């Protein structure tokens, strides 16, 4: 069998393990050749993040840095990488999984004290480094974050791969009011059927519950995705799949403040932290349907004053390529002028049904979604 044919028949886990072993073999070959072992990575700083206007997402630039064993600090980093590679390769061979938090603590059991992680940020970053150099996601390494709890609810039927075999689930009829919990790796989900007209990504749990209690998902054939604040990778991945594979419009419903605008930005364009996965996670076609500064004025919503940090964040967004459109510049400048911010739940000042009976239908109609 040719290597190309073999690659096509491999599972994602087999490919991930092979990539890890190849990376370890590179270190061995460097040793054997009398070279100082090293690993090259994109420079992971804000100055090396570029907005790609063609794909509409954030990506790393051309600058690279080298992790080399020519210093004690560099040697320790490579030692930790080798131990982590061994752990991940064994984990995949045994068909096990672990959390990022467990990896941090597991290093305490490694026989070389120099390989122990000083904190979880260090182990998290190393996993991200291995993603970049191996071109394999941590999900295929069987690494997962602590439970995100993000859910979706709506007229979608899926097939899910579990340790107990396949199961079919309708994300309205077969789940409780809490909805279907998004798994760590949404690529294990197969979309079977749907009556969905659009996807509504909602920042807060309170507003998500309001939409479900008011029957918004049923009335408008809407799939409600709870972002749970800054969305986890799994949430962004399934949102992208829903758009790309089912051709569903994606709307993002957030609070009216600069930090929530960045939540929208991470869904639509990706985040600096995961720039190496932007094309895998981001949905550039996503549209913002959250609280706008003009809503604060038009509906006289209850507000809080902008803090200095809010003002600084808004001014930063004016120079952010993700927000350099006529719409965003107009809204951000208005917000700086009025000096106020408002939460989604502020719409309740006009009644508990206002958001589902008036606000969202009017906004979505004006945007041509319903």
From TrEMBL:
Q: Which UniProt keywords apply?
A: ATP-binding, DNA-binding, Isomerase, Magnesium, Metal-binding, Nucleotide-binding, Topoisomerase
Q: Catalysed reaction per UniProt? A: ATP-dependent breakage, passage and rejoining of double-stranded DNA
Pfam families registered for this protein in UniProt? TOP6A-Spo11_Toprim, Topo_VI_alpha, TP6A_N
Give the gene symbol: top6A
Q: By what name is this protein known?
A: Type 2 DNA topoisomerase 6 subunit A
Does the keyword Nucleotide-binding feature in the UniProt annotation?
yes
> Where's the active site on this chain?
105
What Gene3D superfamilies does this protein's entry cite?
3.40.1360.10, Winged helix-like DNA-binding domain superfamily/Winged helix DNA-binding domain
Supply one GO CC term from the record.
chromosome
Give the originating organism: Natronocalculus amylovorans
């Amino acid at each position: 069998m040719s290597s190309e044919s073999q690659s096509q028949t491999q599972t994602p886990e087999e490919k991930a393990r092979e990539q890890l072993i190849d990376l370890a073999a590179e270190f061995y070959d460097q040793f054997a050749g009398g070279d100082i072992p090293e690993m090259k990575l994109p420079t992971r700083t804000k100055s090396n993040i570029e907005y790609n206007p063609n794909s509409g997402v954030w990506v790393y630039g051309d600058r690279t840095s080298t992790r080399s064993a020519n210093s004690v600090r560099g040697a320790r980093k490579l030692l930790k990488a080798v131990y982590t590679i061994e752990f991940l390769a064994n984990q995949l061979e045994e068909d096990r999984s672990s959390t990022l938090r467990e990896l941090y603590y597991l290093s305490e059991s490694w026989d070389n004290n120099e390989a122990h992680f000083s904190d979880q940020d260090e182990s998290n970053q190393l996993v991200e480094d291995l993603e970049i150099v191996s071109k394999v996601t941590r999900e295929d390494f069987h690494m997962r974050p602590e439970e995100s709890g993000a859910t979706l609810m709506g007229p979608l039927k899926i097939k899910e791969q579990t340790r107990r075999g396949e199961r079919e689930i309708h994300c309205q009829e077969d789940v409780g009011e809490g909805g279907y919990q998004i798994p760590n790796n949404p690529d294990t989900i197969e979309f079977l059927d749907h009556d969905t007209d659009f996807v509504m990504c909602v920042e807060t749990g309170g507003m998500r519950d309001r939409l479900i209690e008011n029957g918004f998902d049923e009335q408008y054939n809407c799939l409600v995705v709870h972002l749970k604040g800054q969305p986890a990778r799994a949430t962004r991945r399934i949102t992208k799949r829903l758009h790309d594979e089912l051709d569903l419009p994606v709307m993002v419903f957030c609070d009216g403040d600069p930090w929530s605008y960045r939540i929208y930005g991470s869904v639509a364009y990706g985040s600096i932290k995961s720039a190496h996965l932007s094309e895998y996670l981001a949905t550039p076609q996503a549209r913002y349907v959250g609280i706008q500064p003009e809503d604060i004025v038009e509906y006289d919503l209850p507000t809080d004053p902008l803090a200095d940090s809010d003002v600084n964040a808004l001014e930063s967004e004016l120079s952010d390529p993700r927000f350099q459109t006529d719409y965003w510049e107009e809204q951000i400048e208005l917000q700086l002028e009025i000096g106020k911010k408002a939460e989604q739940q502020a719409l309740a000042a006009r009644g508990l049904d206002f958001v589902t009976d008036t606000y969202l239908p009017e906004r979505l109609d004006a945007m041509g979604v319903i």
